Structure formats: structure tokens, C-alpha cells
Amino acid sequence: MTTPDDHTLLRQAISLAAKARASGNPPFGSLLAGPDGTILAEEHNSTLTDNDVTAHPELKLARWAARELDAQTAAGTTMYTSCQPCGMCEAVIQWAGLRRVVFALSNEQLLDIRPGSSRPPVPQDGPALLDEVRAAVEPYYR
Predict the structure, then answer these.
(1) Is residue 142 part of a domain?
(2) Do 42 and 16 meet the contact criterion of CB atoms below 8 Å apart?
(3) Is residue 140 part of a domain?
(4) Any idea what the CATH number is for the domain that residue 60 is in?
(5) Could you tell me the strand order of the sheet in which 100-105 lies?
(6) What are the tens digits of pLDDT across the range 69-117?
(7) What percent of the chain has pLDDT over 90?
(8) Active site residues
(9) Beta strand pairing status for 100-105 and 39-44?
């Protein structure tokens, strides 16, 4: 459930999306707020100007939070974003330990606006060579 305070911060994320579009990038913007609503950082999409397919604002903010915030502070944050995070960004948000995401446009709604934009999945084969990979990975977690 969103609140009027959420809507205020979400409007700022939408404004960042407009900034991205004005700079020649896809129209996505996000900000990260602390528990009291203070804006800690903000980003907009820069995939085209940076020539980097991963330059989503949600991913950039989650990476920033993982570098700059301690775990307790990160766990009190809320990300406000113009569009629901994609799978890549969602995973990084989770790894960064952020508490909550509030978005304006769902991924399903985005596909309605931008039909034909989904890409086919990349074929994957595996698992394979379990004993070999286990010998490399398992000691790290013990």
C-alpha cells in the first residue's frame, strides 16, 4: 500500500525518467530514500549515452547502496522508481539488502505501451562438471 509521501517521492522518480528521455536515453528514473524519506541518491537511465546495457537506474542505485551504506542502513531504505525493476535489477536490489521498492509502471504495463520489446530467453545447458565446480566453490562457503 502506498502513501501520499510515497507518491511525492515517486513523482520525483518520474521526473528523473523525463530527464533520462531528455538526455536521449530510455525514460526510466529512480531514487533511494532513507527511513525518514530523505533522498540518499538518485539516478536515471543512461544505457544509450553510456553505451552500457546495464546502466539502469535501479541497478546503479543498488550498487551505490551496496558500496556506500552499511547493512542496517540499506535495510531501512526504499527505492522509488518509474517502472518496476527488471529481473537483473531486482536481483541486485535483493543482494544490496534494500528494504522496499515502490514503482509507478509495472513491467506488464510497460509491455502494453511498448509491445514486442521482450527478448527470447538465452538457451542454457547445465548443470555439468558438478564435482569440479563444487571443489572450486564449496570451500568459499565453509
Answers:
(1) no
(2) yes
(3) no
(4) 3.40.140.10
(5) 39-44, 29-33, 78-83, 100-105
(6) 999 999 999 999 999 999 999 999 999 999 999 999 999 899 888 877 6
(7) 90
(8) 58
(9) unpaired
